[in-house]
C-alpha cells in the first residue's frame, strides 16, 4: 500500500541558536580560556611584587593598575579566573550529580524514600544557606577543600527537589507506563526515559548555581574562609583592595566586574540552554 | 476461534482515598474508590472484544490490570493457562511481551526525546527478538506494517500528527510480537477522519497477525465496527456481554438499552421518546446497594436494591446478562 499524502512527514524545523546562548558561550568561553592558559594571557606573575610601581592606576603597561605591593591587577584577575572557574565547577558538580540521582530515585519510587527525603529537605531549608555553609567551614577549618565539602553537603538538596518534582510529573506520562508494559526495568525507565525529559530545569539551574558558586567562593574568600591570600581569587582580590577603595578604586573594582561578568555569562548560558533543550511539539 | 485465551475471575480493584486525621478522629470508615468489582470475563483467541461504558466505569482500570500496570486486589487473571496476577520479574516481562498495550494519548505515550527508530530498537533488543544486525530490517518491516513512511525512523515524535503517533504506538506494541493487544481508547483523541484510518489499520493487523484484541472505548459505533463481542461495563461491573450484532440490535440489560438509546441518531425520524436514564451516575466512592444500576433504572423493582445480580448466561447465543428482570422471567 502506497502511503497517501496524509502520511507525509512534517518538514523538520530548523533550529536557530538564541543570542543569549551565543553571548553566554562567548563570555564563559573567554573565562575558561583564561583559566586554562593564564600564563599566556597574563603579562605578569600574579604574586610578583614590584615596589617601583605601587598603587598605580590603569595604564597601558598595567591594564587594571597595580595594588599596594605593586602586583599587576589584570594578571591577578586572569589567574583568579583559574581558581574561580574551578570553584564554580567543584561547588556544583557533586550537588548536581548526587541531587539528580537522589531526586530521580525518590521521585520515581515515592513512599518511604520520599518521606525521608522530604524531612531532610525540611530541615536543611530551615537554615539560611550561607550561614549553614559558614558553620560547616568553621567546624572543618578554612580552605578551598573544606568549602567544597560544605557547599556540596547542602547544595544537592536543591537539585534533588527539582528532579524529584519533574520525575513525579513525568512518571505519570503514558510513555513511562508504556515502558513498564514493554517490560523495561525500573533503572532503564528512570535513567533512559524519564531523566532525559526531567533534567532540563536542573541543567539550567546548574548554570545559575555556578554563578552563585563563584559569588559564594568570593564571599568566603573575602571573609577569609575560602581561598587564602596571597592566592589570586576574585573575592580575595576585592578584600585586598577594600582599604584602598577611596584612593585606588581599581584594585577591588576589576575583580568585582569579573565576578559580575561571569555571573551574567552563566545566566545567559542557562537561559540559552533552557531554550535549546526544550522538547519540541 | 472459540478457544479461551484470557480468563478473568472475580477481579476487584480498589483505589484508597486519602484518609485525613480529622476523618480518623471522627471514626469515619476509610473510603475507597471501587474501580472494579467482581469482574468476570473470557476472551477468545483471535477475537476482538469491545469493552464499552461511560467514563469512570472502570474500563481503563480493567485494561491496566490486565497488563499488570495495576496490581489487582482480589480475583484471578489467567492467560493461556498462566496465572498472571502474581507474576514478577522475568516472568512478568515474558507475559508483557505476549500481551501488549496501546495507549490513549498520542502526545504523551511516546518519549519525546527518542526517535521512532530508537523506540523500536530498544523494545526489540531488550527482549532479544533479533540479532543487532537484523534490527534495521525489522524496524523497516514494522514501519511498513503500520503504514508509516520509511524515513520516519530517524524522526522525533513531535514531527508527526496524532494519527501517525498512534501508528508509532501500535508499531512499538507490535515490535515485541505480542499475541494480544489491549487498545485503551486508541482513537478517542483523534479527529474523526483519522479515527477510521487507525481503526482500519487495527482490523488489518488483527487479520494479518492473528491478534486477539481488547478494544476499550466509549464510542459505540467504533466498537460495533470492530468487535466480534462486546462487554458493557457500569460502575466497575460487567452488566452485559454478547455478540456485537445481538447486543446492538436486541440489548437485554436496561443499562445497555439506555446506552444505545443515548447514542446520537443520524436519522431524525427515529427520535427516541423514551427517557433513557434518570439521575446522575452514582459515585464509585459510595456505590448503591444491590444492582449498581437500580437507582437510575426505569424498570427497577424491590429485589434490585437488595441483591446484586450475577452475570449469568441468557439464551443459547452466548449472551451474559446481570439483571434480575431476566431471572424473574426466564
From TrEMBL, chain A:
<feature type="transmembrane region" description="Helical">
    <location>
        <begin position="87"/>
        <end position="108"/>
    </location>
</feature>
<keyword id="KW-1133">Transmembrane helix</keyword>
<dbReference type="InterPro" id="IPR025966">
    <property type="entry name" value="OppC_N"/>
</dbReference>
<feature type="transmembrane region" description="Helical">
    <location>
        <begin position="202"/>
        <end position="227"/>
    </location>
</feature>
<protein>
    <submittedName>
        <fullName>Putative D,D-dipeptide transport system permease protein DdpC</fullName>
    </submittedName>
</protein>
<feature type="transmembrane region" description="Helical">
    <location>
        <begin position="21"/>
        <end position="41"/>
    </location>
</feature>
<feature type="transmembrane region" description="Helical">
    <location>
        <begin position="147"/>
        <end position="163"/>
    </location>
</feature>
<feature type="transmembrane region" description="Helical">
    <location>
        <begin position="120"/>
        <end position="141"/>
    </location>
</feature>
<dbReference type="InterPro" id="IPR050366">
    <property type="entry name" value="BP-dependent_transpt_permease"/>
</dbReference>
<dbReference type="Pfam" id="PF00528">
    <property type="entry name" value="BPD_transp_1"/>
</dbReference>
<feature type="domain" description="ABC transmembrane type-1">
    <location>
        <begin position="81"/>
        <end position="270"/>
    </location>
</feature>
<feature type="transmembrane region" description="Helical">
    <location>
        <begin position="247"/>
        <end position="270"/>
    </location>
</feature>
<dbReference type="InterPro" id="IPR000515">
    <property type="entry name" value="MetI-like"/>
</dbReference>
<keyword id="KW-0472">Membrane</keyword>
<keyword id="KW-0812">Transmembrane</keyword>
<comment type="similarity">
    <text>Belongs to the binding-protein-dependent transport system permease family.</text>
</comment>
<dbReference type="GO" id="GO:0055085">
    <property type="term" value="P:transmembrane transport"/>
</dbReference>
<dbReference type="InterPro" id="IPR035906">
    <property type="entry name" value="MetI-like_sf"/>
</dbReference>
<keyword id="KW-1003">Cell membrane</keyword>
<keyword id="KW-0813">Transport</keyword>
<dbReference type="GO" id="GO:0005886">
    <property type="term" value="C:plasma membrane"/>
</dbReference>
<dbReference type="Pfam" id="PF12911">
    <property type="entry name" value="OppC_N"/>
</dbReference>
UniProtKB/TrEMBL annotation, chain B:
<keyword id="KW-0547">Nucleotide-binding</keyword>
<dbReference type="InterPro" id="IPR013563">
    <property type="entry name" value="Oligopep_ABC_C"/>
</dbReference>
<keyword id="KW-0813">Transport</keyword>
<dbReference type="InterPro" id="IPR017871">
    <property type="entry name" value="ABC_transporter-like_CS"/>
</dbReference>
<dbReference type="InterPro" id="IPR003439">
    <property type="entry name" value="ABC_transporter-like_ATP-bd"/>
</dbReference>
<keyword id="KW-0067">ATP-binding</keyword>
<dbReference type="GO" id="GO:0055085">
    <property type="term" value="P:transmembrane transport"/>
</dbReference>
<dbReference type="InterPro" id="IPR003593">
    <property type="entry name" value="AAA+_ATPase"/>
</dbReference>
<dbReference type="GO" id="GO:0015833">
    <property type="term" value="P:peptide transport"/>
</dbReference>
<dbReference type="InterPro" id="IPR027417">
    <property type="entry name" value="P-loop_NTPase"/>
</dbReference>
<dbReference type="GO" id="GO:0016887">
    <property type="term" value="F:ATP hydrolysis activity"/>
</dbReference>
<comment type="similarity">
    <text>Belongs to the ABC transporter superfamily.</text>
</comment>
<dbReference type="InterPro" id="IPR050319">
    <property type="entry name" value="ABC_transp_ATP-bind"/>
</dbReference>
<protein>
    <submittedName>
        <fullName>Oligopeptide transport ATP-binding protein OppF</fullName>
    </submittedName>
</protein>
<dbReference type="Pfam" id="PF08352">
    <property type="entry name" value="oligo_HPY"/>
</dbReference>
<feature type="domain" description="ABC transporter">
    <location>
        <begin position="6"/>
        <end position="260"/>
    </location>
</feature>
<dbReference type="Pfam" id="PF00005">
    <property type="entry name" value="ABC_tran"/>
</dbReference>
<dbReference type="GO" id="GO:0005524">
    <property type="term" value="F:ATP binding"/>
</dbReference>
Amino acid at each position: 500500500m502506497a502511503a497517501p499524502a496524509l502520511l507525509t512527514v512534517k518538514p523538520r524545523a530548523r533550529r536557530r541558536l538564541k543570542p543569549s546562548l551565543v553571548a553566554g558561550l562567548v563570555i564563559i568561553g573567554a573565562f575558561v580560556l583564561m583559566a586554562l592558559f593564564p600564563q599566556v594571557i597574563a603579562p605578569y606573575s600574579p604574586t610578583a611584587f614590584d615596589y617601583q610601581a605601587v598603587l598605580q592606576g590603569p595604564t597601558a603597561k598595567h591594564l587594571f593598575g597595580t595594588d599596594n605591593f605593586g602586583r599587576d591587577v589584570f594578571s591577578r584577575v586572569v589567574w583568579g579566573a583559574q581558581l574561580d572557574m574551578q570553584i564554580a565547577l567543584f561547588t556544583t558538580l557533586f550537588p548536581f550529580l548526587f541531587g539528580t540521582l537522589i531526586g530521580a530515585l525518590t521521585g520515581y519510587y515515592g513512599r518511604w524514600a520520599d518521606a525521608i527525603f522530604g524531612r531532610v529537605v525540611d530541615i536543611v531549608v530551615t537554615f539560611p544557606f550561607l550561614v549553614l555553609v559558614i558553620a560547616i567551614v568553621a567546624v572543618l577549618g578554612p580552605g578551598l577543600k573544606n568549602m567544597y565539602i560544605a557547599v556540596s553537603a547542602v547544595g544537592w538538596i536543591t537539585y534533588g527537589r527539582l528532579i524529584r518534582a519533574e520525575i513525579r510529573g513525568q512518571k505519570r506520562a503514558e510513555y513511562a507506563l508504556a515502558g513498564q508494559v514493554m517490560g523495561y526495568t525500573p533503572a532503564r525507565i528512570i535513567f533512559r526515559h524519564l531523566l532525559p525529559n526531567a533534567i532540563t530545569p536542573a541543567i539550567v539551574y546548574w548554570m545559575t548555581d555556578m554563578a552563585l558558586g563563584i559569588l559564594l567562593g568570593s564571599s568566603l574568600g573575602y571573609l577569609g574562609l575560602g581561598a587564602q591570600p596571597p592566592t589570586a581569587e576574585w573575592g580575595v582580590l576585592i578584600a585586598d583592595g577594600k582599604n584602598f577603595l577611596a584612593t585606588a578604586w581599581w584594585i577591588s573594582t576589576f575583580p568585582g566586574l569579573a565576578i559580575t561578568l561571569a555571573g551574567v555569562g552563566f545566566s545567559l548560558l542557562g537561559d540559552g540552554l533552557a531554550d535549546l533543550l526544550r522538547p519540541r511539539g | 476461534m472459540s478457544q479461551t485465551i484470557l480468563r478473568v475471575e472475580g477481579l476487584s480493584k480498589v483505589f484508597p482515598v486519602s484518609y485525613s486525621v480529622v476523618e480518623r478522629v471522627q471514626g469515619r470508615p476509610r473510603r475507597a474508590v471501587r474501580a472494579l468489582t467482581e469482574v468476570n470475563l473470557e476472551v477468545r483467541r483471535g477475537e476482538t472484544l469491545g469493552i464499552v461504558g461511560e467514563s469512570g466505569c472502570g474500563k481503563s482500570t480493567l485494561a491496566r490490570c490486565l497488563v499488570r500496570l495495576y496490581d489487582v486486589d482480589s480475583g484471578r487473571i489467567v492467560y493461556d493457562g498462566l496465572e498472571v496476577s502474581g507474576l514478577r520479574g522475568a516472568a512478568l516481562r515474558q507475559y508483557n511481551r505476549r500481551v501488549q498495550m496501546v495507549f490513549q494519548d498520542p502526545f504523551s505515550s511516546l518519549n519525546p526525546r527518542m526517535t521512532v527508530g530508537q523506540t523500536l530498537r530498544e523494545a526489540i533488543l531488550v527482549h532479544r527478538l533479533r540479532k543487532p544486525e537484523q534490527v534495521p530490517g525489522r524496524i523497516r518491516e514494522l514501519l511498513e506494517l503500520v503504514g508509516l513512511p520509511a524515513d520516519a525512523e530517524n524522526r522525533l515524535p513531535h514531527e508527526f500528527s496524532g494519527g501517525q503517533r498512534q501508528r508509532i504506538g501500535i508499531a512499538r506494541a507490535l515490535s515485541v510480537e505480542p499475541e494480544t493487544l489491549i487498545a485503551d481508547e486508541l482513537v478517542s483523541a483523534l479527529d474523526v477522519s483519522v479515527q477510521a484510518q487507525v481503526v482500519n489499520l487495527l482490523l488489518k493487523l488483527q487479520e494479518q497477525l492473528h491478534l486477539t484484541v481488547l478494544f476499550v472505548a466509549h464510542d459505540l459505533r467504533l466498537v460495533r465496527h470492530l468487535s466480534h463481542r462486546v462487554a458493557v461495563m457500569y460502575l466497575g461491573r460487567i452488566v452485559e456481554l454478547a455478540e456485537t450484532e445481538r447486543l446492538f440490535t436486541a440489548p437485554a440489560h436496561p443499562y445497555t438499552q439506555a446506552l444505545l438509546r443515548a447514542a446520537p441518531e443520524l436519522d431524525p425520524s427515529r427520535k427516541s421518546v423514551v427517557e433513557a436514564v434518570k439521575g446522575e451516575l452514582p459515585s464509585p466512592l459510595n456505590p448503591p446497594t444491590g444492582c449498581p444500576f437500580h437507582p437510575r433504572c426505569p424498570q427497577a423493582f424491590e429485589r434490585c436494591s437488595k441483591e446484586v445480580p450475577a452475570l449469568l448466561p441468557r439464551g443459547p447465543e452466548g449472551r451474559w446478562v446481570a439483571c434480575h428482570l431476566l431471572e424473574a422471567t426466564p
